[in-house]
Specification:
Shape: elongated
Helix content: 55-70%
Organism: Streptomyces coryli
CATH superfamily of the largest domain: Tetracycline Repressor, domain 2
Number of helices: 10
Keywords: DNA-binding, Transcription, Transcription regulation
CATH topology of the largest domain: Tetracycline Repressor, domain 2
Number of domains: 2
Protein name: TetR/AcrR family transcriptional regulator
Number of strands: 0
GO molecular function: DNA binding
Distance between the termini: 100 Å
Length: 206
């Protein structure tokens, strides 16, 4: 009697596993997601997970890299690169944050903000803090360019204004997780833009 051949094991889908890990970290934060939960959601055993990704921190870093290359993770850089002024870029950033943070079919808010909630792992907290501060630094550089070009008053505090915008963006992420709608976050964006400094008028012949 011939022995029945077993089928080949299904290939491990690394991209699908990363997507599931990304959603888990995004929804619940780094600290709250256990290895047991990750293996259950991904559908592999702990040895396979360690073999594919290393430890939990390495898996988080891989998921964070995926997020960083997604539309959710690149909208700030795109706006800064494509818009003609700092104000136009920031208006677009706030509008896209309102839309992206409340988009259906994905966790609410920003992963870089959400994943760090209640994090007691110093390496993770430092990594996410560096990313958030890096974005604020990019905003400050762009604002400073507009000051130099005369599009903003010379007395404008570029670092302080960038920090204000960063606080609004991070607050919008938290509000989205608390159930704020796209329209409600757009109202927050509009209010923030009303605080934008007006360019000084240059006297004729100056």
């Amino acid at each position: 009697m011939a022995t029945k051949q077993r089928g080949r094991p299904r290939a491990f889908d690394r991209d699908a596993a990363l997507d599931k890990a990304l959603r888990a970290f995004w929804e619940r934060g780094y600290e709250a997601v256990s290895i047991a939960e990750l293996t259950r959601e991904i559908g592999i055993g702990a040895p396979s997970l360690y073999a594919a990704f290393g430890d939990k921190k390495a898996l988080f870093d891989a998921a964070l890299e995926v997020y960083g290359h997604s539309r959710n993770g690149t909208f700030i850089n795109r706006a800064l690169d494509e818009e003609p002024t700092a104000r136009a870029a920031i208006a677009r950033i706030l509008r896209e944050a309102a839309e992206g943070y409340t988009a259906p079919g994905q966790p609410k808010g920003c992963m870089v903000v959400s994943a760090g909630i209640n994090t007691t792992t110093p390496e993770v907290a430092a990594e996410l803090r560096e990313m958030r501060n890096g974005n604020i630094g990019l905003l400050a550089e762009r604002i400073q360019q507009d000051i130099a070009a005369g599009l903003l008053p010379p007395t404008t505090d570029a670092a302080g204004l960038a920090r204000f915008v960063g606080a609004v963006i991070q607050g919008m992420s938290t509000q989205a997780r608390d159930g704020a709608s796209t329209q409600e976050l757009e109202q927050v964006a509009d209010a923030a833009l009303r605080a934008w400094p007006a360019a000084e008028e240059i006297p004729p012949g100056a």
